[in-house]
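User: For a benchmark we're assembling, each entry needs the component sequences followed by a predicted structure for the full assembly. Here are entry 17's components. Please fill in the structure.
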Amino acid sequence: DAGVIQSPRHEVTEMGQEVTLRCKPISGHNSLFWYRQTMMRGLELLIYFNNNVPIDDSGMPEDRFSAKMPNASFSTLKIQPSEPRDSAVYFCASSSSGAEAFFGQGTRLTVV
Amino acid sequence: AQSVTQLDSQVPVFEEAPVELRCNYSSSVSVYLFWYVQYPNQGLQLLLKYLSGSTLVKGINGFEAEFNKSQTSFHLRKPSVHISDTAEYFCAVHKGTDKLIFGTGTRLQVFP
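Assistant: Structure for entry 17:
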């Protein structure tokens, strides 16, 4: 298995633009997590899905952020409009129930 | 609610010395516990996990951790560190299919 695949690896965009981050979880995993990592706030859970259903989105910072999981093999995290303070590394992770989470390599987002 | 506390933000140590990275958790129910490592510009990688059974858990790269229910701790140890162990280490907890909660991380810096 290729592991959790995230794209793009790097994204530089201008303030106000829409940004879409993509994630392909490991086949057979039923939980998917989106995390954001910054120097100031560390690793924050934004949202997680179980069996494609959003279970907890309390970590989503504001309405500019949205996440979808249309099927078991794909998820997106969208920021619209983006702001400089959204600059961070965004990680996607997947797991089977009760097991460890496997992380992607992350997307480094820079909003200028 | 579950939470994880990593008491040390940075731990400097000389090569071949022993090291302990501390982690305490709070939960009213049984939990699963994990340690992850993050090398620069990479995603998180599982070091070891405690799900049940023996309280002493051995992981990759010579690391081990001990689950102590009475002290609600899951400290990570290695008897002799290498330069290559320099990285950020995260303790994490979750209950079954619940969300995975991470501590703030401990930066291990190994000096020659």
